[in-house]
## 1
Amino acid sequence: MTPRHLILGLQHTVAMFGATVLVPLLTGLNPSVALFTAGVGTLVFHLVTGRMVPVFLGSSFAFIAPILAAKEAGFSLSAIGGGIAAAGLVYVLFALLVLLIGSERVRQVFPPVVTGPVIVVIGLTLAPVAVEMAGKD
């Protein structure tokens, strides 16, 4: 194991914890379910990609606002779970679209020089909110 592998592993551990434990706690969902499904999803991902991409799949922070809004609107956790499952199907449709048109075509539209800084800006913008919320609970 090289120092680069150690740093990558540490980064994935931090990302995994935030995505897989913090998101369910913030939304009132069960972290055990999130850990289990993230593990199964990661194993399926590694099988599909032939273990070529070292990644852990966790919960999406994109779902926090819609889940909290749905809870405030009076929707049950079952209904919210159905919405999350429907969003998962949309993800699958987009994955099939990328499979059909090719990932290189997607990279032409969204090159790493564009997507990388956008992800960094999103993370830096949300970091103070996460620190504040973690400090309260």
## 2
Amino acid sequence: MLLTVTTTRRPATDLGYLLVKHPDRVHAFDVPTGTAYVMYPEATDDRCTAALVLDVDPQRLRAQKDAFELSQYVNDRPYAASSLLASALAKVFRSALRGASKDRPELAASVLPLEIRVPALRGTSELVTRLFAPLGWTVTATPIPLEAELGGDSRYVDVRLVGELRLADALNHLYILLPVLDDAKHYWVAPDEIEKLLRSGAGWLAGHPEKVLIARRYLAHRRSLATTALQLLEAEEPATEEEEELPVARKAPLAEQRRDAVVAALTEVNAARVLDLGCGGGALLTALLKNRQFTEIVGADVSSRALEQAARRLRLDRLPERQKDRIKLIQTALTYRDDRLRGFDAAVLMEVIEHVDLPRLPALEAAVFGHARPTAVVVTTPNVEYNVHYEGLTGMRHSDHRFEWTRAEFADWASRIATEYGYAVTVRGVGDPDEITGSPTQLALFTISTEVTA
């Protein structure tokens, strides 16, 4: 699928500074459903076009529960702009979405002549116009015809948007409205999607005549989420001079709260040499690298692809030598003993144990707590009792989860591990707690007991 952004403001090649992508290169990014590429089919002082191309791997698409057996292969997802493209846009143009530019801050804040092209987008000309025209775009949405023998138009349109806006505003319009037009998100929608909607819709969504439709579709028609979002939008009023001087607290997504809780636990035990076991794409590693307390950081994962993603996320090839010397990525299976993991101040298993088959869990316990035996271990896992707050969730939070524990089950497991391997343990919640069901995430901090001698 394809999206292009064009400007004619001279020198037009400054678009590369705003997108933080050099016009002379082809840039590749690994995303959960394939590979995203950024390239410039034209780059002159008079006109510059950046193209975002998403190459979807059909085998990495998850079929819907009620779909037919081959639906992950027979679908329009690799071709028509959708929530997949919006997610790729958010990852590839992250700083541009925020309106940040280290090299051209004044240009990032300026209104630019822009042209957006999406050659294949699910929707009708009428709906595309209703969504984009109120935001200052001149909209051309041409229906794509079916094959001649079938006759008529398909359910897709070729969209061209022309207007004068800040680049950040244009990208945020696309980030929200592409999934709205698609009306079929490729991932399960949780309450933290409200925060994404409000953040990217800041300054325009509250006054949009189609805000009800946008909220409902963006939040996958989950009534309670859409109602909450609309109530928050209705509460937006121009701030008084006194209010503008006060900082506005932002509710952090659960994933961010979880990372912060893990880093806080590591700080609590004064860890300097840290293992991130099951590091995945490197979200925690990035946070650890920013903290100078952690002098040696090792990310370990059984998946070579995950390690490649982590390396790209960390930009290992561009890190200064002093930073690069602090971090290392290794491939290993956590259910086997590995001498490279011994001797560390702390190890983290963040949202890892629930991905291990229960019969294999004792092997992981022995490898981590018995053989590697770090001075401290931080473990986080979902609290299954909290799942009742996720509307529409009928199973576990992720299709790859092998189990999810109640607070009592997690506490019993943590107590058994502490007794068996000579650790003391404290258990706490992470995320906004509910009086009955507790917090969405539970965390155990293990420290080698001073009462146990080697």
## 3
Amino acid sequence: MDQSFILNLLEILLINIVLSGDNAVVIALACRNLPDEHRNKAVVFGTLGAVVLRVGLTFVAVYLLTIPFLNFIGGLLLLWIAISLLKGEDDGDIKANSTLAGAIKTIIIADLVMSLDNVVAVAGAANGNILLIILGLVISIPLIIWGSQLLMKIMEKFPIIIIAGAALLGYTAGEMIFKDKAVGHVLEGLNPHLHMIVPILLAILVVVVGKLSGRSKKETH
């Protein structure tokens, strides 16, 4: 194991730590309403499933980013996930928040949507070394699991963190939309400041729509 291999592995680990914050937020939001006996299972299986898919994505990441509207559609999907997770704060019947299978599915789908940037960065740092890619992702698993479990404990004590987490996902969705090859440059052409404004507006939209939808559904029961 030469020095360059170790340095590249450390670089991949750092990338995973920095870019996995959103993933930890999704896991914490998706699992916060589960019974205690199911939380750890959802976190572990959801994270493992997401990482397996991310390994596969890494090998086709550069090609995927050239597909028009892929990031745009991913951004819209992440927006819907963020609103659904926040809506669960006022509605305990949301499947993704109250069942083990639903939480695992939400974690995997959201991670898949948000992983494009991550896998491109990892693929670049690995210089095509498959062992480096797999090692980096495997070692990052406990970091993501620990981070999400810590967030869940914080959310229990400070519910405002739930709103902040959902808003962060909305902001991330806005950034994904602007990275789309077909949509991003069109929006930038309309106004060069939109790339800063739209993510903030979508973060606000998630909070407003998520909370209003949750309350509306609660009032109908």
## 4
Amino acid sequence: MIVLKLPNQTVKIDKGELVSYNANTVEYIHQKGDPGWRNADTEMFPVIGPTAEANFTVWTPKGDAIQDQHGLLRELTYTLVEADDTTAIFQKKYLANTKITNSKYPDKSIVSELYWPYDFQFQKKYELTNNGLEITFIITAEEGMPFMLGYHPAFKTESKFTKLSTENITIHVEEIQAVGSRAYSLTDVTSAQLQNPNPLTIETQGFKHLMLWTEVDTMLCIEPITFYPYDVTQDKLSQGYSYMGKLPVEYKVFLKPTHL
């Protein structure tokens, strides 16, 4: 367990997963073991969304790849690169066409192994600041590699009457629940505020949209994404790709408690 600290703020990271963000004695992260979801956060890469109806196959310029829902990155293990009192960097590396055991097989999937036809390196950097927590994702891969990226953190909520506000809309948790597994889409939204008794602002950089999901009243997943996968059928999922340039790319998420 890696612990980052500043006055009135504490972050706990377990093998790369954000399992606690406490500010002024308020816990903002959904706790593993509580109803709603078995995790606290994860990443969706190199694809977002379901692939079952496309026989778990997605197109790439180097040929088809086998991917389960939300990609294969979550099947890899983070290693710690470096850490100090306020910063921690974790990393995953993947070698092209390496077959990765699918943890959803056989109970929730018919494919036992996943693979992707490109090398990549994926870093996750946590930095605790006086304004809150900054999370940076750094992708390094060959020029032209296609990808989608989504960050999937879960936040504690108080009840079905909890609201999420953006510049143009306010959504209640019960409205998000009504959408079901497809998730509630907020197009071209890069900032939102979770309206708990202790509000939390989520700001993003590089991501294009937000996707919202929950099945319970006490948790809300607020997911920055580069592409909303339900805008297309599963066999057309590749329409949502971004493509690597010559340099690594960075995406950021900022968690800012209103009262610090």
